[in-house]
Amino acid sequence: MMWRIPLFDLDYGQEEEDAVLSVLHSRWLTMGEVTQRFEQAFAEHLGVKHAFAVANGTVALHLACEAAGIEPGSEVIVPALTFVATAAAARYVGAEAVFADSQGETDLCISPESIESKINSRTRAILVMHYGGNMCDMHAILRIAEKHGLIVLEDAAHAPGASLDGRKAGAWGKAAGFSFFSNKNLATGEGGMVTTNDDELADRVRRLRSHGMTSLTWERYKGQALSYDVTMLGFNYRPTEMSSALGLVQLAKLKRNNAHRRELSALYHELLVEQTPEITIPFQQARGTSSAHILPVILPAQVERARLMDAMKGRGIQTSIHYPLIPHFSAYRAQNETVDDLPVASLAAQRELTLPLYAGMTEEQVREVVTALRQCLDEERRSD
Ligand SMILES: Cc1ncc(COP(=O)(O)O)c(C=O)c1O
Questions:
Q1: Ligand 1 centroid – CA 153 distance (Å)
Q2: 14-250 is classed CATH 3.40.50.300
Q3: What's the burial of 350, exposed, middle or buried (CB within 10 Å: 0-12/13-18/19+)?
Q4: CATH number, domain 253-382
Q5: Of 35, 84, 150, 358, whose Cβ has the fewest other Cβ atoms within 10 Å?
Q6: What is the dihedral of CA 22, 25, 27, 32, to 10 degrees?
Q7: For residue range 133-173, what is the model confidence (pLDDT) as tens digits?
Q8: What is the pLDDT of residues 326-346, one digit of tens each?
Q9: What is the set of active-site residues?
């Protein structure tokens, strides 16, 4: 289906094409010099010591958990309202993902109070997710972690370029994972990044990413090493040079594109307050600077969300849901008998609707989406 206004769209042009072609012409396709440049630029942008490009955001989170030393049998507190990969990362290392609630209908990020209520003797880490590119309450979360001797990790998939008090998302925890999936603010198709200020953790990520080997194919090609040892059970989580070349171009656009996303979000908020007063608008008051990854709203209880999404689709406008509740998924249900203590995340999972937002979107299109939403809400009321 061709949407008139899709949920997201790439900001791709000649520069991305040129960057990929220049890799193809170089005849070196797997992790090498372009990836090193992307990592340096990303680390500089974030103000962190180390950045490691990887194959996607899911493995970035897996590496962060593995390299942080989270042991099998321990517990990692994660938000209930996130993409399943956040929780899967904890489970890959044999830990249990324990779900914490969101702050409230207007702040869907993980709640520090709920985190604290989930801590027990097996808790090893808190893996936060900056929902929609909006910073979690990192000061409170770091205080709790310090009090209980826990590791803080960040799922910064939504948040490249977001910041709080001058410190970027991905620079707060012991390590962080980013995603460069097609729908992200910085998109390379598949791709991700692990960031950290911890030298030892960085050393483990470096080796875990490439089979636990002490030297890379790239280094041997350059004549810097003849052989290698394998010092740990590692993975092949390497990126391609094409993905890193796209990442470099996209990173250069990130600041401008995030600023435009924030302007569009502000316009959305203004129009939604005026025209759809019955809906709740999260994140009108930003904590720090958002990367404005998505535009979530909370529908009134009586609105049938699927019908509304269908009506929007009828007008050529794509909408989405962020997210179904992880503890409700079949693969997670058995370990989590009850979601009674996740009232906000449960409510958001039932009533959240995501409206289109992307760097190339125009103000006119924002107006069109809000007008369509008003009409669809009216239709929905009449059909009751
Ligand atoms: C919050 C969150 N965490 C993790 C991921 C996983 O990233 P990827 O799809 O690159 O594996 C995504 C995106 O897809 C995400 O939105």
A1: 15
A2: no
A3: middle
A4: 3.90.1150.10
A5: 84
A6: -10
A7: 999 999 999 999 999 999 999 999 999 999 999 999 999 99
A8: 999 999 986 655 678 999 999
A9: 184
